[in-house]
Design goal:
heterodimer; A: 295 residues; mainly alpha; flat; B: 273 residues; 2 domains; 11 helices; globular; MetI-like (chain A); membrane (chain A)
Chain lengths: 295, 273
């Protein structure tokens, strides 16, 4: 049987990739899980079983509490900022704008740069120095007479992490715009035309027709942005280094594992992050792939 | 189009948003072009007044050149290899399915979303045991493997849109698996290769986490070197700004010239085809 043999070959063709993913993704996750259940501290591996002790310790750890609080604040500011700016700019761009391509390219270009570059530049823009040493955005606000906007940025107690969400919004809102624009372009013009013929105003058309039809886009954007937010790491490192007030799980994991050699604890944080992301992503994957049609 | 052009006031918010996105670039470029005598944080928003100087770029380039080179050496092969493997996977998973292919695909895809903190400890152990720890080949291998989900997705989605009659016709003509891939699917997949390669190029170039954990200082790629430079008290902010622009330039150039393909990669990442 020719076809049967070819099917075997097709499996052999993808076998190297499958093996790589099986080992480096699933095998390594299993290995990390095993480390998270061990007491491994120090340079030499120690797989002595301690059950869920690392996780219990983590949830009693004041630093981990700060991490969770920071992640929640960051996520809320980052997602709402990106959604509002992304939807706003997409709706504006959908109004038959001249030079639409130019605006679109400008809004989207930050996606091409690394969080490290963004962070290094924004750390100077968000310089918290006051008075005669004022610079960056504070200086700009002050010279424009907008003194009420002058603030401490990421050095603000508790809410400093919200300032880090600003460069994150700068970087990802254009992407959100692109998702919304694709959604808007998928709405047939006839729907809007029909409403116009019936005498609906543009505002009514948006709130009663367009906005509800964009709900799936909003949901996808929230899932994508949400999982980025849970993993946020390099942006914070580039803006502020490793400071406890701006700590998040990803930084804690990096520091405790590779600077402090608390491998068991680091692995537990890794598993915690994985579960948080999986809760968000797995339903999304299942839902996205279910609707596929075979050609 | 029956609709008339937009009302003029709509351009006000559009222009304001453009200012928001471009302001950091303005600071990066103008700072980079000022002479050392003009540099002060007070003058951050002012245009260069004593002519154009490239002092900052020269100073930044002298410090960063070896790391830019490290990045190029590691990122280019990683992007190409990952895309070739992705095209084979995409072809098989879309058009030459083995039993269980539909279960395997979502399992591969999930690898795209995992927080890499959940594989980092074993990855470092693996690299140490294979002697790849600290060097660029290990980092390259890492990018090839963790790039497989998105490249596989890109090609699978594209090949899924090819009518299956094409495969059947090729089979009738006696073409086997590799011939069908090589003569029919590979030639039409050029746009997907562009998408996959520039997407992988951008992702690997911009990566920080794998790089900072897996390489030693001599092999640092640009992101790690730039972050290290920014954290140092000795190097002035103006040189950091110029360095940031140098670090961003390769992916920006790709974006400016191949933006259309870049966008398609982005959309694929959100599973939007």
């Amino acid at each position: 049987m020719r076809i049967k043999k070819d099917t075997l070959y097709s499996f052999l063709l993808v076998l190297p990739s499958l093996a790589a993913v099986a080992i480096f993704v699933y095998g390594f996750i299993g290995w990390t899980l095993r480390v998270s259940l061990s007491q491994w501290t120090g340079l030499l591996p120690d797989y002595t079983w301690v059950g869920l002790q690392n996780f219990v310790n983590l949830f009693q750890d004041p630093r981990f509490f700060i991490d969770i609080r920071n992640t929640v604040i960051f996520t809320l500011v980052f997602i709402s900022g990106s959604l509002i700016i992304g939807m706003g700019t997409a709706v504006l761009l959908d109004q038959n704008i001249r030079a639409e391509g130019f605006f679109r390219s400008v809004y989207l270009f930050p996606m091409a740069i690394s969080f490290i570059v963004t962070g290094v530049v924004w750390r100077w823009l968000m310089n918290p120095a006051m008075g005669s040493r004022m610079s960056g955005l504070n200086l700009l606000f002050s010279s424009l007479g907008l003194d009420f906007l002058v603030n401490q940025w990421h050095t603000t107690p508790v809410w400093g992490i919200a300032a880090i969400a600003l460069p994150a919004v700068w970087q990802m809102s254009g992407y959100t715009m692109a998702l919304y624009l694709a959604g808007l372009r998928a709405i047939p013009d006839e729907l809007r035309e029909a409403a116009r013929v019936d005498g609906a105003s543009e505002v009514q058309i948006f709130s009663n027709i367009v906005f509800p039809l964009l709900r799936p886009v909003t949901l996808s954007a929230m899932v994508i942005l949400g999982h980025i937010s849970l993993k946020v790491f390099d942006l914070i490192v580039a803006v502020a280094g490793k400071q406890i007030p701006l700590d998040v799980p990803a930084i804690y994991m990096w520091q405790t594992t590779f600077d402090g050699y608390f491998f068991g604890r680091g692995a537990a944080i890794g598993i915690f992050l994985l579960i948080s992301v999986a809760v968000l992503i797995v339903p999304y994957l299942v839902f996205s792939l279910r609707g596929e049609v075979e050609l | 189009m029956s609709r008339k052009h937009a009302r003029p006031w709509l351009y006000v918010p559009l222009a304001l948003m453009a200012v928001f996105y471009l302001a950091p670039v303005y600071v990066m470029i103008t700072t980079g072009l000022k002479g050392f005598d003009e540099i002060s944080l007070k003058n951050m928003w002012v245009l260069p007044s004593s002519g154009i100087h490239f002092d900052n770029f020269t100073a930044a380039f002298e410090k960063l050149a070896p790391y830019l080179w490290n990045s190029f050496n590691m990122v280019l092969p990683a992007a190409v290899l990952s895309s070739i493997l992705g095209s084979l996977n995409g072809f098989v998973l879309a058009k030459w399915k083995f039993r269980g292919a539909d279960v395997v695909f979502p399992l591969i895809l999930f690898g795209m979303f995992i927080p890499y903190q959940s594989v980092l400890i074993p990855l470092v152990e693996f690299m140490k045991q294979t002697g790849l720890y600290g060097g660029l080949p290990g980092l390259m291998l890492t990018h090839v493997i963790y790039g497989l989900p998105i490249t596989t997705l890109t090609f699978r989605n594209y090949f899924a849109s090819v009518p299956k009659e094409m495969v059947e016709a090729a089979r009738m003509d006696g073409a086997g698996l590799l011939a069908t891939y090589g003569y029919i699917f590979l030639p039409i997949a050029v746009p997907s290769f562009v998408v996959a390669i520039i997407w992988q190029f951008t992702a690997a170039w911009n990566d920080f986490l794998f790089a900072v954990v897996l390489t030693n200082p001599a092999n640092w790629p640009i992101t790690v070197a730039l972050n290290n430079m920014a954290g140092s008290q000795i190097i002035a902010w103006n040189v950091q700004m110029a360095g940031s622009l140098l670090a961003a330039l390769p992916t920006l150039v790709v974006y400016i010239f191949l933006g259309r393909y870049f966008l398609r990669g982005l959309m694929a990442g959100a599973l939007k085809g």
